UniProtKB/TrEMBL annotation:
Span of domain FAD-binding FR-type: 309-415
E.C. no: 1.16.1.9
Keyword Iron: no
Protein name as annotated: ferric-chelate reductase (NADPH)
Catalysed reactions, semicolon-separated: 2 a Fe(II)-siderophore + NADP(+) + H(+) = 2 a Fe(III)-siderophore + NADPH
Top-level lineage group: Eukaryota
Family per similarity comment: Belongs to the ferric reductase (FRE) family.
Major site of localization recorded for this protein: membrane
Subcellular localization: Cell membrane
Keywords per UniProt: Cell membrane, Electron transport, Glycoprotein, Ion transport, Membrane, Oxidoreductase, Transmembrane, Transmembrane helix, Transport
A cellular component term, taken from the record's GO annotations: plasma membrane
Membrane-crossing residue ranges in chain numbering: 42-62, 100-121, 142-163, 185-205, 226-246, 266-292
Amino acid sequence: MSHNHGSTGTTTGSSSGASTTVDLADKVAYGLLYASQHEKHIMYAWIIWVLIAFVLGAGFILRLTKAHRQIPLASVSRRLFLKQTFPCTNWRMSVARGHVFALFLYIAYNFVFTFADIPYGRKYRYPSKHNGMMQTATTMQFTANRTGFLAFSGVPLVFLLAARNNLVSWATGIPYNALNFLHRWVGRVVFILSWLHIILWSLELDINYFPKGKHSYYNTRWTMRYWLGGFAATVFLCFLCLHSLPFVRRWTGYEFFRSMHVFGSLLFLIGCWVHWPTAFQWIAAGIAILFADHMARTSRMLFIQLRGRGSAEAVVGIFSDEDEVDVMRITIKNCGIKSWRAGQHVFLCFPAHSRFQAHPFTVANSSNKTHNPDGDLVFVVRRKNGMTDRLCQLAAESKTLKVWVDGPYGVGALSPEISGRHIQLVAGGTGISFALSAVSELTGRDIPGTMQLDWYVRRRANTAWFGNDLAKLSHLFGSTLRISIHITRESPLTASSTEKDTSNSSLTAIEGVTYSYDKNSCAEVLRMYASTVDPRQGTSKIAVLACGPGSMGPNVRNAVAEMNGSVDVKCVMEDYV
Ligand SMILES: Cc1cc2nc3c(=O)[nH]c(=O)nc-3n(C[C@H](O)[C@H](O)[C@H](O)COP(=O)(O)OP(=O)(O)OC[C@H]3O[C@@H](n4cnc5c(N)ncnc54)[C@H](O)[C@@H]3O)c2cc1C
């Protein structure tokens, strides 16, 4: 990235002895400045990594020593940082202030050190080593090189934030999929820095370096290695940024996006390496993270298949409702995964559909032996247009399907800190998996508080996905667990007319479960639960575990942020995006 266009060489095009001395003095001054600036570029590219390592290290030590539980301002910081940045409930715009703050710090660092510590306004005139003609170098090229170095140093961060086996997640406890926002935006910062590098160098070559015409730098340089590498890297970087825009991703399909993203990233990295091998360490780090992540995924999947002797089978049941929405309940038997934590997800690959596609689904039960002696994994999966659609068709043809499983992934919903609080679970549609696995995992444990599960479904018939499980849990927990089902697309009248259809067992009321047809938003439900919590009963702290589609995520985060301060409320969310 850092170029030295004709900074050395002995040929001189000047005729007089005096001007030769001036040229040489300029050349020496330029060489010295170039060397000192080069050191600074390297220093600023590294400092950001020292800061990142410090933050990750501090996060890791806090988690290891459990000291974060004692931080007195935790509730206040949740009030500040959990709230959505934009006042809307559209999940596409849904991003917590904490993430935006982290991004702001990263952008601010890059902005400041793109321009800082560079001596502006100097010009050096000396003969080019290529054609002996006089050229003028200005300090614009130092800003250009600085952006190049900062862009290179951002590359490993982009890959680090995208990995499924994620070091940042491991150190901080933030789920790897929640880091996707930062992955995308750090990528965009690298994109902007790269374009600044290109534009500033183009201006330097075009305006300040002479001559023009057939001897111009563009004509003489474009076949050189650094130019070709830089050109290729820019093309692939533009491709990566453009094809990951939401509307392009929807248009090309998720699977095409994913494979092209990995392939395009690899070509981008190769282009960068060819462009500037001197700064290879950043690129090598990016390649290492990409390969390590894919190796870890593949070997884990192989290990699981070997442990399960390759005999994992999925039994799929299909539920359809009046809205023509199909949901599958998938039970996987003989799978090599022996234990998982509530709220974790796995990647399922059905070879009968494709050996090259694995999709994430949240496990709906727990590996708690009293609950699940056979170690089966249960999922509820909503039919969409790709693999899930094909799966529905395959399930209609065959009772069991061969499946490959990779996982579990995610940090889990129930840290000891969460299970030591009153727990409010909010689920929308298939998001019930997240809540059910948490409640199942808590069976047999001594929990200090109460639990309230609010499940939003469109129709009462949807409760059939988990009718028996809800009844069992309600029976096991007794008064400690209250379950409310909120039906959003039926009125009591329409529901009671369908309830007369006694052949449908899902419509008979589940014992211990209350049904409501209210339009209470989940924010109201959260506030109502908080007002009923009795601080004399074990603890006054509340944990909210939520998972659901669309606007549920932003609504819950905002509500929890607002409640914090007066009550200590911690939130664990799973988004299916
Ligand atoms: C952590 C996590 C847990 C999830 N748990 C569940 C669950 O328990 N039940 C459930 O019904 N759904 C769950 N989902 C969503 C589920 O993964 C997608 O609905 C499914 O992959 C869609 O497959 P498709 O080919 O039919 O989708 P398409 O109709 O092709 O695409 C629909 C949308 O699904 C998403 N998607 C598609 N493929 C993938 C993929 N490989 N990885 C991630 N997202 C993808 C994209 O946003 C896409 O726009 C979860 C998603 C995540 C990220």
